[in-house]
Amino acid sequence: MKNTRGGFTLLEVRVATVVMGIAVSGLIAGLSQSVRNASRLGDYDRAAMLARTKMNDLLLDADLPFAGTVSGQFDPDQAGGMESGWQASIRPYEAPLNAGPGAIVLQEIDLRIWWQPVSSQKDRTRRTLQLASYRQAQIPRPVGP
């Protein structure tokens, strides 16, 4: 009768350790990428919320110029610590023929939000999000002497 002992040789243990090391390092790399993606999506979600809020403010602003550009920056507390701002271009979109001062026309508001993510230190490129909306506006009457 042959006496055999069950178990692993040193070579088998080393090979198993190398295979486990490769698998664990791949798993950690995948988790790291998932965390970066979640952070980037959080930044986009915050920017979309800021854009919707700013667009609502602009649509309701009675002092907005009839045509032109306005811009500003968001409070860092409001933007989650990101450096961010906005620029809106306002212009008449559609007007009836021979529309004069006092006529109601359709006005387009083109809003561009920008931000620089704080999550990525090596990639400091500015990200943008653009929205457009329309509202009724009155053609301004000329201011005379």
In short:
The chain is α+β, with helices and mostly antiparallel strands and 145 residues long. It has one helix and four strands.
Description:
- It is rod-shaped, with a radius of gyration of 29 Å.
- The protein has one domain: GSPII I/J protein-like (Pantoate--beta-alanine Ligase, Chain: A,domain 2, 2-Layer Sandwich).
- The chain has a four-stranded antiparallel sheet with strand order 1-2-3-4.
- It is built from one helix and four strands; from the N terminus they run αββββ.
- The longest helix is centred in the first third of the chain and has 51 residues, at 10-60.
- It starts with 9 loop residues before the first helix and ends in a 7-residue tail after the last strand.
- The mean pLDDT is 87.
- With 145 residues, it is of the alpha+beta class.
DSSP helix count? 1
CATH superfamily: GSPII I/J protein-like
Q: Remind me, CATH topology?
A: Pantoate--beta-alanine Ligase, Chain: A,domain 2
Shape summary: rod-shaped
Strand content: 25-35%
Distance between the termini: 121 Å
Indicate the low-confidence ranges by residue numbers.
Answer: none
CATH class designation: Alpha Beta
pLDDT average, as an integer? 87
Number of domain modules = 1
Q: What's the number of extended β-strand segments?
A: 4
Main beta sheet, described?
Answer: 4 strands, antiparallel
The topology string of helices and strands comes to: HEEEE
Fraction of residues in helices?
25-40%
